[in-house]
Amino acid sequence: MLNSCVMHRHTGPAPGIMVWRGIEYHPRTPLVRIAGTLISQHYFSEVLEPVVLSYLQGLATAIFQQNNARPHVTRIVQRFFFNHQIELLPWPARSPDLSSIENMWSMFAQRLTQIIPPAATPDQLWQRVEAA
Questions:
Q1: How far apart are CA 82 and CA 130, in angstroms?
Q2: Residue 90 pLDDT more than 80?
Q3: In 24-131, at which residue ranges do the beta strands (DSSP E only) sit?
Q4: pLDDT band (50, 70, 90) for residue 96
Q5: pLDDT at 94 > cutoff 80
Q6: What share of the chain is helix, strand, coil (3-state, %, to 5)?
């Protein structure tokens, strides 16, 4: 039981948070913390109106990509894209998630798991996410 021979691991429940970010070739959107589970109303009021709209207005030509998650296909969300004339990349139902941002999330999660000691609360995790 020498300290030099022991590898400490966190085995209890880990805190979790839901975040959203948009990426493009160079710029990216701010990181948005979603309170609780992502529902269409949160997606609309916390992501689309305040972040996506201003982000896409700064790009000459853009096609917005999202998968077919339930919050993405609701009437309020589809109406938002239609009203603002935002072109969506067609995404087939039940398709594998081939979005390029999935690679970024994987690398991001790996970096967070290497921070010692692990975050004990969602707020501590958010502070680390913002700093990363």
A1: 32
A2: yes
A3: 32-34, 63-64, 87-88
A4: low
A5: no
A6: 40, 10, 50
Using CA atoms of 115, 20, 54, 96 in order, give the dihedral in degrees to the nearest 10: 130
pTM above 0.90, yes or no: no
| Mean pLDDT value across the chain | 83
pLDDT mean over 86-97: 79
Q: Please give the DSSP secondary-structure letter assigned to residue 41.
A: H
**Pick from 48, 13, 17, 25: nearest CA to 130:** 17
Q: Any alpha helices (H) in 8-100, and if so which ranges? A: 40-42, 53-57, 75-83
Long-range contacts made by residues 78-87, C-beta under 8 angstroms, separation at least 24?
80/44, 80/48, 80/49, 84/53, 84/56, 86/52, 86/56, 86/62, 87/62, 87/63
Distance in angstroms (rounded) separating the CA atoms of residues 19 and 7: 30
Amino acid at 85: Q
Cis before 50? omega within 30? no
Find where tokens 């339930």 sit: 70
